[in-house]
Design goal:
It is a single chain. The protein has about 140 residues and is of the alpha+beta class. It has two domains: about 35 residues, no CATH class; about 100 residues, SH3 type barrels (Roll). The longest helix is centred in the last third of the chain and has 17 residues.
């Protein structure tokens, strides 16, 4: 019988419980697991370390056989928590070309597709938080004194 999802599994060191956490995770948690690091230029530009991987992002493969390739994201599978890239394929025994699934943790976002309104909202929210709790307020307070 499948047990209900518990956020306490994430604290376990046991691999079986880590796997159970990933397999039984609801969609809102799975979406967080689909984040990939940003390149240094994008980190400075957006002031964030990572973003969720989306279709049409350009990513660089950091690990594995295809290491160093910079390609577009073709498909994202939340069920298996894998990303499929264009031009990253292998040949099957019968001769067909099939896409190779890659974990998002092994990718780095080089160019983010900014057509998504939710993604723009995420980045704007980060800027607002920085203005409210950041250095801008302390500078104004110092000027008044």
């Amino acid at each position: 019988m499948r047990q209900q999802f518990s956020s306490n599994w994430v604290r376990s060191r046991q691999p079986r419980k880590q796997r159970k956490y990933m397999i039984n995770a609801p969609l809102h948690v799975r979406q967080k697991l689909m984040h990939a690091n940003l390149s240094k230029e994008l980190r400075e530009k957006y002031d964030k370390r990572s973003l969720p991987v989306r279709k049409d992002d350009k990513v660089k493969v950091m690990r594995g056989k295809f290491k160093g390739k910079i390609v577009k994201v073709a498909e994202i599978n939340l069920k298996t928590l894998k990303v499929y890239l264009e031009e990253v394929t292998r040949k099957r025994v019968d001769g067909r070309e099939v896409p190779v699934p890659i974990q998002p943790s092994n990718l780095q976002i080089v160019s983010a597709a900014m057509e998504d309104k939710k993604r723009i909202k995420i980045l704007d929210r980060k800027k607002k938080d920085k203005k409210i709790g950041g250095k801008e307020l302390t500078k104004k307070a110092d000027e008044k004194k």
